[in-house]
Write a structure and sequence with these properties.
alpha/beta; 2 domains; about 30% helix; about 20% strand
């Protein structure tokens, strides 16, 4: 595979995390940065997810880097194409695009303790990196359910994140499996075109009205003023944090529950359908969804809601766990992602050859969601314990980027060859998180969700405010680490 390329920092992934990491490191004075990307274009989840109706469920003004606000959003909640264009433009403006090596999928990364380097194998060559930043993201690899008979379905099957735009749905009989964020967006987008739509809903979701609208030209002109942009971000941030306070004190969520029930009652007149769509758990226990068009779409005559999981597929017939059946031509799997089962974790190895998967044993863990004992000089972005369920991923990411830049700066200044978080520090943080989570709606709300890993532990959620997250990650804490001098 040719010569090994030496680099100070190797970033894996060129979505919002990888682009942000490269920018933060270069702004901190680290010039020797390379980004490896398995695809042929940047953008991460906003490159991969192109299904009809794909958009952000966080207000546009908050869905951007604070150091690169975008006054040009055309909607209050930006669509996929605009978000991808923003990432492309930002990467170009900050000089990240030339740093990206496309079609360079990482096949393995192993810590070489003797050399204090990460030995990384990619599809386009080998690297020896002083620091490794894993920015592959949790919304990346589709979660495909194991449904008996699905592999023998004679029609067309695809995951929502691998949308087949060449497949014509006009007049087709379509089954959508799943009722999470992607289903809530794509169902209203395809419902008018299809002949018949069957939604298989394992669990009813809390869906609130989405206050989306076009942003006028005068408003966009106003938002070019930094003060106006900052004021809008601050107001939207405060509103989302107020919702987050309810997740930590579930008694405060009565108003959210009332709003959700009113939205459902107004949009769906059929009492049988309304009952099937009524959640049986506290709002926030699962991810809250936003849509003003989902319920009206489900109430249309060409839509049937099956309030059940899919049990099997036999030929063109889908059978639900409740015995209901549907004959279809196309199956769309709106079944989410391997959020806590990160594929990259099976390709990153410690000095003895044990992978991140081996260390985690089904329960991802990282100190401050960022560093892992046994994996020196490595950082995980948007890692375990940092999911909020209410705020912008950019808020989480930027807190981590400050910590990452501080760690690299400190290691350089102190003459460290390597730094590894101490196992007892990581364990104490994990215990602190789990103790706090026990009092949140994620634990008391009466549901199961993707926040919980294969062992039933919530490895996803941050149990406090994002303000506290930013304070915890604001300053690199060298005492939490064991260092090896150069």
């Amino acid at each position: 595979m040719g010569a090994e390329h030496a680099v100070e920092v190797l970033v894996v992934g060129s979505g919002m995390s990888g682009i942000g990491a490269a920018i933060a490191l270069r702004r901190a004075g680290v010039r020797d940065v390379v980004v490896v990307e398995k695809a042929g274009e940047l953008g991460g989840t906003w490159r991969d997810n192109t299904y009809p109706g794909c958009a952000c469920d966080v207000p546009s003004a908050l869905y951007s880097y604070s150091f690169a606000p975008n006054p040009g959003w055309t909607r209050a909640f930006a669509g996929q194409e605009e978000i991808r264009a923003y990432l492309r433009e930002t990467a170009g403006r900050f000089g990240v695009t030339p740093l990206i090596r496309f079609r360079a999928e990482v096949t393995s990364a192993r810590w070489d303790a003797g050399a204090a380097r990460w030995r990384v194998e990619t599809a386009r060559g080998r690297y020896a990196a002083r620091f490794l930043v894993l920015a592959a993201g949790p919304w990346h690899e589709p979660s495909v359910p194991r449904i008996p008979g699905l592999a023998r379905f004679p029609g067309t099957v695809f995951h929502s994140s691998r949308w087949r735009h060449g497949h014509d749905l006009a007049g087709a009989r379509v089954a959508v499996v799943g009722s999470g964020a992607s289903a809530v967006q794509l169902v209203p987008a395809i419902q008018p075109a299809v002949g018949r739509l069957h939604l298989f809903q394992r669990t009813a979701q809390w869906v609130l009205p989405k206050p989306d609208r076009r942003i006028t030209r005068p408003e966009r002109a106003l938002l070019r003023l930094p003060a106006a942009q900052q004021a809008l971000r601050a107001a939207q941030y405060a509103a989302l944090e107020a919702l987050g306070a309810g997740f930590r004190r579930p008694a405060l969520l009565r108003a959210v529950s009332a709003a959700g029930r009113l939205h459902l009652r107004t949009a769906v007149r059929d009492p049988v359908l309304r009952r099937a769509l009524t959640p049986g758990y506290t709002p926030g226990c699962k991810r809250l969804l936003l849509s003003s068009s989902y319920y009206p779409a489900l109430a249309r005559p060409n839509v049937t809601v099956h309030p059940t999981a899919v049990a099997s597929v036999d030929g063109s017939r889908i059978t639900g766990a409740d015995g209901s059946r549907a004959d279809v031509d196309t199956i769309v799997l709106a079944t989410g992602f391997r959020i806590l089962d990160l594929p990259i974790a099976g390709r990153v190895f410690d000095a003895s050859g044990a992978s991140l998967d081996d260390h985690w044993k089904g329960s991802p863990d990282a100190y401050l969601g960022t560093t892992v004992a046994g994996f020196p000089n490595a950082f995980v972005l948007l890692g375990p314990h940092l999911g909020t369920g209410h705020s912008s991923a950019y808020t989480v990411l930027e807190a981590q980027l400050g910590y990452l830049a501080g760690a690299v700066r400190h290691a350089r200044a102190a003459g460290w060859a390597s730094m590894e978080v101490r196992a007892e520090v990581q364990a104490a943080f994990a215990a602190e998180v789990q103790d706090a989570l026990a009092r949140t709606v994620y634990s008391t709300g009466g549901c199961s969700s993707y926040y919980h890993d294969a062992n039933g532990r919530n490895s996803f959620s941050w149990p406090w405010s994002t303000g506290r997250m930013r304070r915890r990650l604001a300053v690199f804490d060298p005492d939490a680490y064991t260092a090896t001098p150069v």
